[in-house]
Amino acid sequence: MIASAKVNLFNFDRHGLEAFFAEQGEKAYRATQMVKWIHQLGVIDLDKMTNLSRSLRAQLIETTEFSLPKVKYRQHSKDGTRKWILELFDGNAIETVFIPENDRGTLCVSSQVGCILNCSFCSTGRQGFNRNLTTAEIISQLWIAKDELAREAGNQKRHVSNVVFMGMGEPLLNVDQVVPAMELMMDDFGYGLSKRRVTLSTSGLVPAMKELKATSDVALAVSLHAPNDPLRDILVPINKKYPLAELMAVCRDYYPKSSKRKITFEYVMLDGVNDQPKHARQLCKILEGVPGKMNLIPFNPFPHSGYGRSPIGAITAFRDILQKAGIVTTIRKTRGDDIDAACGQLVGDVNDRTQRKARLATRLKRIAVKTEELDIDEAR
Ligand code: SAH
Ligand code: SF4
User: Fold this and answer.
1) Of 236, 296, 237, which Cα lies nearest the Cα of 266?
2) Which of 97, 105, 282, 321 could form a disulfide with 227 if both were Cys (CB 3.0 to 4.6 A apart)?
3) What confidence tens digit (pLDDT) does each residue in 264-297 have?
4) Cβ within 8 Å of residue 337, ≥6 positions away
């Protein structure tokens, strides 16, 4: 399918719209009006935008459009979690998940179709990389969720109070498109979410993290998953390029000391792989002096993953070690299990790469030996 020649107004944050309207000879306040219509009020019918002049509306009808992905499927979990599978103009599909809790409603959005970084426990990674999402495709996920949730009646009524970039893809490999979408989320004339309620999760792309720090105020989550380089090299291969020492150095200074803000560290609990007390002790060491809190994620299995979820006893024991060292640690509740709506389970058939499982098992055995060596060093 060919993309339309018209300009999709979902592609711009307020600054982008200001530039767009300037080209049309219009004043900057038109951008504010348009952001309000589209994102605050959810209106995408130019006829209803009564504070725009008739002539401007006529001109916009000719040259612009409000193009949204199609909702291909909706799934509702018993626990209230919802999942949307959205079809993009080129036939690709992405997923968005809404997780209601007592005090909040969190929308988990995707930033890419697939992911190039190939973390060994992640189903998105195993699909390989297809393409970056546009700003329009990213913000559409929130627009559609808000629109659909607003239509629900009675006490079922929910709204999005938080957004996390924890769906498909690595947002820091698509910064140009992700940042304007985040701006719309935080814009008082848009979705009006506070900077603490929009969280970007990264696998640890150090230079891009530094750039983000300089350009955006969103909350940061870092996918750690291992307390030492040999193990992280396998679980999160980008670690070979940006090893833990570099990653922790940027995390240590990410927020100004005075701000009291903390990075959320994500740590997927893989049975027998990274969930032992010695791993918890190593983690305490590398997190010393880093303002952060820890979120332990029970692994969400998918076919041919080669991993299992840690037993709850191992997870709580792990948490207790971190807590004792003064690290605030939470265990993520598994949600939407009946609709495969959890992290790392998003979209599509898993394309098990050749003999991956067997290769992985051999590599993990080798790592087990290496980390034992580290423990010995530590004990000395
Ligand atoms: N690429 C980014 C954001 C998307 S992944 C990142 O890696 O941080 C969002 C989170 O889901 C990450 O912490 C990721 O490690 C985790 N995740 C991926 N696969 C998972 C799985 N099968 N079970 C549990 N968490 C998983
Ligand atoms: Fe990509 Fe994140 Fe999955 Fe790693 S965990 S493959 S970075 S989406």
Assistant:
1) 296
2) 282
3) 999 999 999 999 999 999 999 999 999 999 999 9
4) 77
